[in-house]
Amino acid sequence: MTFDIEMIRQRYAAMPDGVDRARRTTGHALTLAEKILLTHLADDTQRPVFRRGEDYVHFAPDRVAMQDATAQMALLQFMNAGRERVAVPTTVHCDHLILADRGASTDLAAAREVNREVYDFLSSVSNKYGIGFWRPGAGIIHQVVLENYAFPGGMMIGTDSHTPNAGGMGMIAVGVGGADAADVMAGMAWELKMPRIIGVRLTGRLGGWTSPKDVILKLAGILTVKGGTNAIIEYFGPGTETISATGKATICNMGAEVGATTSLFPYDGRMGDYLRATGRSDVAELADAVAESCLQADATVLEHPERYYDRVIEIDLSTLEPYINGPFTPDAAAPISEFVRMAREKGYPERMEVGLIGSCTDSSYEDLTRAASVARQATEKGLTVQAQYIVTPGSEQVRYTAERDGMLRDFEAIGGIVMANACGACIGQWKRHTDDATRANSIVTSFNRNFAARNDGNPKTHAFIASPEMVTAMTIAGRITFNPLTDTIPDKEGNPVRLDAPQGSELPAAGFAVDDPGYQAPAADGSSVTVAIAPGSKRLQRLEPFGAWDGEDFEGLRLLIKTRGKCTTDHISMAGPWLRFRGHLENISDNLLMGATNAFAAEGRDAVNCVLNPTLPGQTYDKVSTVAKDYKAKGLGSIVVAQENYGEGSSREHAAMEPRFLGVKTVLAQSFARIHETNLKKQGILALTFAHKADWEKVREDDTISILGLKEFAPGVPMTVVLQHTDGTTESFEAEHTYNDLQIAWFRAGSALNLLSKKTKENE
Fold first, then answer.
1. E strands within 207-346?
2. Contact predicate 376/414, CB 8 Å
3. For 260, which of 11, 155, 311, 409 is 20 to 30 Å away at the CA?
4. How far apart are CA 72 and CA 178, in angstroms?
């Protein structure tokens, strides 16, 4: 069954003419990204030439997808928009709240009980507003979207940073905050700064132990976690046709780790094969008809890529090695030939304690077949795993088919535990069974993020990222320094055994199969449906609008925290056990910035979740959230000061809503990650950057800070930051911003949602 086929038909029918008009208007050949972007303009009558990295543009996405953790807040916001149904096709996927513990059946049953009120809420609100609902156990949002909704040349937004997974199907798919999703569901345009375009030319062909995962692991090392910010990564070249659709999705998925707006591949026969295998032959036929003109870059672009891309990177797949990235950051990239030496030099714990495969980035049928071929060798060659081995299928369709084809037995035969089709350990939803939860240790995963404490809550866990087949091989060997290309493993008799290169199947020979995919269609008329929110719930809370700007400059702000070093959304609003409060803003705000490092930490005090409250007598230090609550109770606004790429990582808007709820007026950083900066703007927090990054050093722990220039708030006009030091001296410097007129209107209204609600009422 093809969902929303009429919408897709209309999109393809209009695309050739739209691409032709865009080419005439711009006066030049078009990249694939430009073709999709310029045929999704919200106002189709205006086709100006947009400046990449500068102009904000309004788009009309084809659909919205939300995972259960972020969907709660997004839908709570949407409920205040005054609409009876969503304006575009929308789905909710229950994948984040399932704790990986003992195994699929046990964990899924436990999740359904523990999270019952959240699932009931999501099911009822989906039913009421015309939203497709994928029940817990159906699979991870990005794999389910790839199997059912992604189509070449389309545009989608999703409330998860790894939404770009759908780029493997030639779709512009962008991770956003819930407020963006609420806007689009309510029929509003979606605003995005016109991205730069990074072209990655692939040549050659993958082989042996090298997999699609290694393409993005290498690229992460080239671009770093900031190199893709406000850019689309567009792959091209003959090498693209040698990679499967799900392999392409793996590459696009982890593009989020370099800050990219999204990533995408041109349409080819491998995508068509995947569409047909997943029951969407009608979409494949439509795509085939417009492939050459609309679903790949123009020939001139491919001939002279340096003229059309802002940067061109070359990767030869034939010479690419397997990569291992980490620990603690996904851009610490090393080919396996260098990693072994590096790991020993740096003293990483060599013993590997857990190997984990799956997650949204590497849980396809092809991924499992390649990993299973390695696991099967262990059984056949008399080897036993030397570390715990955990397997997470991407969807019920993948799991059911893998079970039918014997792959799950291969994993279980070497001691593997098959977890529920959910995010699990990748996002910290993992009850790790260990004899010491605080010691230094090493794990290797096929996930996409490896921030400190992300997987198991232990900041001393060294998490490394590799392909599923490499993870499996290392699990069998029991050490992170094992190189399957060169090393051997002793069998039960002590004889050296070498693992053969993995073998995989792009698609199941007998086709995909599934008993119950886990989909719930919404009611045709949801007017009589009651949204389930229990009175006094600890997990769900209806939203009250934030207050509008009072028309005055921000004077006398208290410094809540000055962060030092990496401060991701995991540091700002931790996941793990806090996921249960994603629908309750007041309760989840207790985790505000609890993982951030205080730049003023001194000997004898904790560096994390311990900040000064100068309004209390003596040197009073407390948790960040406690100090923020005290400031709020006293009617004092506060400010957060940070360094580079503040808000890196997840799309979670709680990292913006929590400080807003607790009275933070401004975040002043050396630079922002794209999604988080937008989320701050959407929630009415003033997001500023230092005009001169060295001014960060001037901010003292007990400063009172003023932001001047709000009365003249205008695009491109800097503001003035005034530091009032306790010694009676003052310092001032300029701060810059990226607000346009609409975003300034959000700020003045108190949030984008406030402005949306106002316009909805005016149009009634």
1. 231-236, 262-264, 311-316, 323-325, 333-335
2. no
3. 11
4. 9
pLDDT digits (tens, 9 = 90+) for 657-714: 999 999 999 999 999 998 899 999 999 999 999 999 999 999 999 999 999 999 999 9
How many C-alpha atoms does 631 have within 13 Å on its Cβ side? 29
Q: How far apart are CA 516 and CA 169, in angstroms?
A: 24
Domain 323-497 falls under CATH 3.30.499.10: yes
pLDDT per position as a tens digit, 436-463: 999 999 999 999 999 888 999 999 999 9
Q: Among 3.40.1030.10, 3.30.499.10, 3.40.50.920, 3.30.2310.20, what is the CATH number of 5-316?
A: 3.30.499.10
Distances (CA, A) of 473 to 22, 361, 376, 426: 49, 19, 11, 20
| Cis-peptide, bond into residue 327, ω within 30° of zero | yes
Active-site residues, by number, are: 95-96, 160, 449, 650, 652
Alpha-carbon distance of 685 to 669, in angstroms, equals 13
The letter for the amino acid at 558 is R
* CA within 13 Å, CB half, 304: 6
Report field, pTM of the whole predicted structure over 0.85:
yes
For the domain covering 554-763, report its CATH number: 3.20.19.10
Burial of 342-371, coded b for 16+ CB within 10 Å and e otherwise, reads: ebeeeebbeebbbbbbbbbbbbbbbbbbbb
